[in-house]
Amino acid sequence: MQVQRVLLNSRPGTNGTPVPDNFRVEEMTLARDLKDGEVLVRTRYLSVDPYMRCRMNEDTGADYLDPWKLSECVDGGGVGLVESSRYTACAEGDVVTSFTWPWQTHAVMAGSSLQKVDTQLVDGHISYFLGAFGITGLTALLGVREKGKVTKGANQTMVVSSAAGACGSIAGQIGRLDGCARVVGICGSDEKCKALVEDLSFSAAINYHEGDLPARLKESCPDGIDVYFDNVGGAISDTVISQMNTNSHVILCGQISQYNMDVPYPPPLSDETQENLRSKNITRERFMVLGYMNKADAALFELSRWVKSAQLKVLETVVNGIENMGVAFCSMMKGGNIGKQIIKILD
Questions:
Q1: 83 neighbors 347 (Cβ within 8 angstroms)
Q2: Is the N or the C terminus of the chain less surrounded, counting Cβ atoms within 10 Å?
């Protein structure tokens, strides 16, 4: 069969901003014949995520991430349907997902790399397995639970950076559900601020492009900050940490403002920020959700219960067509998405 796939065409450079031309789409012929243990899948949705920027470099800077290879098909989170199978755990019609799904319209994959999913968990919204019911949702829930130290009735204030993104939009809602008295989101547009407050029930939202961020943050967090879900790093995080209370907690989830720079991960902090952490006894620990996968099933059940009861809302930005993968990726890296950036693969 003829399929389309996306290759890494060029690298943006260690300190470069990615552009759509870093990717190219080509057609290829895919043999439908399967070997034992293989599965033919039809791709329905693909994910683009900030961590992928590291995979565009020759050295990802993380021992758990392999770089994408030039002129080879790239991969990431995906979900689709089994069309034929020679793997006992997968049958025709099953909905399956993988962290290493090729950016192809159809693919032959090792059955052992696929996870069968229950569509009832998401009321048929199978794209949610790439966001709220995938690594993104697990990172939000387990990050808040394991590192945030949220206590009901303690009148805590949580701040979330990149709050309208895939992970931040979920994390802020979980902070509220778990008992934070105030949840304040920082994002990059008035449209995103409106979505956070009106759709996701954040207490307040701040557009960091407008006005005096330290003053606006102080106004929104009059009792200081107890929990900070950090997705961005850089100057925004320095500002938040400067207003954190004694014995507060930073959940170090991502550092998207630094991903186009040649710096180690996590990036180094300024002397002032390091002193704030030390003098106020603020914990700041890197959070890796893969270290907590023994808690994933219970977490997914809880996320499903919240979504089905409308206590937690899922936002997505959907782009159609595999030919737009590069455009969608670059838009996401610049904050063009509200919620999870998803690419729908058309029939």
A1: no
A2: C
Distance between CA atoms of 140 and 168, rounded to whole angstroms?
Answer: 7
**Distance between CA atoms of 175 and 178, rounded to whole angstroms?**
5
Q: Which pair of structure tokens corresponds to residue 106?
A: 């159809």
The answer to whether residues 316 and 292 touch, using CB atoms and an 8 Å cutoff, is no
Cα 247 to Cα 149, 232, 237, 281, 285, distances in angstroms: 10, 22, 17, 5, 13
Q: Is the pTM of the predicted complex or chain greater than 0.85? A: yes
d(CA 223, CA 151): 16
Structure tokens at 139: 């990172």
pLDDT tens digit sequence for 204-250: 999 999 999 999 999 999 999 999 999 998 899 999 999 999 999 99
pLDDT digits (tens, 9 = 90+) for 68-95: 999 999 999 999 999 999 999 999 999 9
Main-chain dihedrals φ then ψ at residue 327, nearest 5 degrees? -65, -45
- For residues 254 and 231, is the Cβ–Cβ distance under 8 A? yes
Q: Round to whole Å and give the CA distance between 275 and 278.
A: 5
Angle ∠(304,306,164) on CA atoms, nearest 5: 100
